[in-house]
Amino acid sequence: MILGCADCQQTYPLNTRHWHCQCGGIFELKDGPGFVKDRIQRREPSLWRYRAMLPLDRDEHIVSLGEGFTPLIETDVYGLKIHCKVEFLSPTGSFKDRGTAVLISVLKGLDVKAVVDDSSGNAGASLAAYAARAGMASEIYVPASALPHKRAQITIYGARLIRVEGPRREAALAAQEAATRGAYYASHYYNPFTLQGLKTTAYEVWEQLGGRGPDNLVLPAGHGTLLLGAYRGFTDLLEAGLIDRLPRLFAVQAAGCAPLYEAYLQGADEANPVKEGETLAEGIRIPHPVRGKQILAAIRQTEGTVLAVDDEQIGRAHRELAQRGFYVEFTSAAPMAALKELHNIITADQVTVVPLTGSGFKSP
Ligand SMILES: [Zn+2]
Asked: Where would I find the beta strands (DSSP E) of 135-238?
């Protein structure tokens, strides 16, 4: 396996310390494994049931905390029956663990000893936990505004936490600067192995629906890694002849910081950076998603759309989810708020999946 640039097709070895191509393009994994139904390890209650579909050479490199295989639970919202994929039951309380488990396993195989990332909280906590599990050192750069519970979680795993003043971008630049001093930049949005782990969300949904795909997938999008991971997982299933078509992808952003929404409205192919406005949904407060082009293409291909919801809508949806027994973080309530707006587009006879991405226990 090698890495290749999505723009200029230049290739790089897996152990490169570059996190994007010299032309500025995003890395993709070349020659990754596809989906083979008969190779599911059906007795394995984690994402490693799809071991054969994950890009890892040797089993002894697997670093796992039992991630994946989260429940799919039905509930009624605004007259729609929806299936909630309960990702907040992951080992560190967010969907990020799928991507981190695969990324850290690959890095163990490459003999990496120290990792660094920038994060508003969930990705950093996930990386800190899996680095601890793998015996790697970790350094996490967070914006100074990161929630105290998330900061505490990052440090308890033994990571070095660095708070960076200024907008979210400053934390990213600080992490990249640190990466030039020796640690591997285990970026949850640049690194293509993250998406390899996240594609298992689609595989699981397909299994849990009895061997069919949903009609709609409604999910929060900041860097859009879950959206892209799920898109690729469903694409694998389509190529394997196991579903007839891809689900429509509905990306939900916070109105205070909505670069994908603005690009979609303008009919643009790329998401240009926007001002980082305030929002309760700090997990998707991303003014410049580096995979914006891929995200917009996936949404258009599947005939989905991008929506933006404000804090009042998010707060209301958050309470409504809690009243159904689901305690999530505000970011995870954004798709639920958007469902109300999708009333005529998503209908009651369709199968709709909404991932509940992060735990409410991390909120103040
Ligand atoms: Zn390139």
From this structure: 137-143, 160-164, 184-185, 216-220
